[in-house]
Amino acid sequence: MAEVVEVHKDWSGSFPSGKKITVVFVIGGPGSGKGTQCAKIVSHFGFTHLSAGDLLREEVKSDTEQGTMIKNLMHEGKLVPSEIIVRLLLKAMLASGNDKFLIDGFPRNEENREAYEKIIKIEPEFVLLIDCSREEMERRILHRNQGRDDDNMETIRRRFEVFQQSTLPVIQHYEKMGKLRRVDGDRQPDMVFEDVKAVFAQLNTQANQGSNVSRAQTNPFKRWFLDLFCSCFDVADRRN
Ligand SMILES: Nc1ncnc2c1ncn2[C@@H]1O[C@H](COP(=O)(O)OP(=O)(O)O)[C@@H](O)[C@H]1O
Ligand SMILES: Nc1ccn([C@H]2C[C@H](O)[C@@H](COP(=O)(O)OP(=O)(O)O)O2)c(=O)n1
């Protein structure tokens, strides 16, 4: 069930206290189809999609010292310092006004995860892993045609290494916590989305069950009606 977030006072901008915030991380190798599936999730489930890579590419455009540093790291297929990406995520979350976030391409390593836990502190509901073979990912990236500076053979090789060495420990961490939801990403986008939909549908069911219970417990009219119903039909009260 979605968690109620206690906002910490040291935030420079913060979610309204007590607001329920839902976070889902989407991870997978480069070209596994994270962005493609996120677009579908947004239109079906009303999440705000935050792509870590897109936020960094926006920052590169800013033509600052930090932008140049990010550009060079991305060109080499390396990861950007965690504090930078976590601050960009927090800023985008606060600016969106939404309460449901799909964070794509994050966390990429244990340092990313720890910085998120320290700064944003909102436990993800689950982590969607798009599992795809290396040959398929390579083929897709080479056909992506988005003019990305890092979609060249040498940088792609480095990004695969980073995924193996740095992202696998993050996947194992969430697997141990029972939070990992793995889908087979080697198939056509609509087929992959069938499995993704099933994962998100569970989230909706849990949230609805949670909210029905709490509304029944707090709405005086509903409570009075349920009491009346139970007494008329001699039903044992199992609401609590
Ligand atoms: N299931 C799929 N089958 C075939 N091509 C795909 C699939 N998912 C994505 N693509 C294509 O592969 C490329 C990489 O997908 P993208 O969503 O950008 O991946 P990521 O965000 O994981 O890097 C894009 O050109 C996209 O259109
Ligand atoms: N948490 C993150 C996410 C992306 N980056 C950098 C490093 C990645 O190679 C690039 C591109 O990431 P993006 O998610 O857009 O693309 P791919 O999944 O590699 O296709 O951004 C990062 O440093 N830290």
TrEMBL record:
Report the top EC class in one word. Answer: transferase
Per the record, the domain of life is Eukaryota
Naming one, the record's GO cellular component terms include: cytoplasm
Q: What does the record say about how the cofactor binds?
A: Binds 1 Mg(2+) ion per monomer.
Q: Which GO terms describe its biological process?
A: 'de novo' pyrimidine nucleobase biosynthetic process; CDP biosynthetic process; UDP biosynthetic process
SUPFAM superfamilies of this UniProt entry? P-loop containing nucleoside triphosphate hydrolases (SSF52540)
Which residues are involved in binding ATP?
G31, S32, G33, K34, G35, T36, R144, R187
Under catalytic activity, the entry for this protein gives: dCMP + ATP = dCDP + ADP; UMP + ATP = UDP + ADP; CMP + ATP = CDP + ADP
Which positions bind CMP?
N112
> CDD domains annotated for this entry?
ADK
| EC code(s) of this entry | 2.7.4.14
* Pfam hit, one: ADK
| UniProt entry keywords in alphabetical sequence | ATP-binding, Cytoplasm, Kinase, Nucleotide-binding, Nucleus, Pyrimidine biosynthesis, Transferase
- Which InterPro entries does the record associate with it? Adenylat/UMP-CMP_kin, Adenylat_kinase_CS, P-loop_NTPase, UMP_CMP_kinase
> What is this protein's function?
Catalyzes the reversible transfer of the terminal phosphate group between ATP and AMP. Plays an important role in cellular energy homeostasis and in adenine nucleotide metabolism.
Enumerate the HAMAP family for this protein: Adenylate_kinase_Adk, Adenylate_kinase_UMP_CMP_kin
Q: How does it assemble?
A: Monomer.
- State the domain notes: Consists of three domains, a large central CORE domain and two small peripheral domains, NMPbind and LID, which undergo movements during catalysis. The LID domain closes over the site of phosphoryl transfer upon ATP binding. Assembling and dissambling the active center during each catalytic cycle provides an effective means to prevent ATP hydrolysis.
Q: What is this protein called?
A: UMP-CMP kinase
- Organism, as annotated: Triticum aestivum
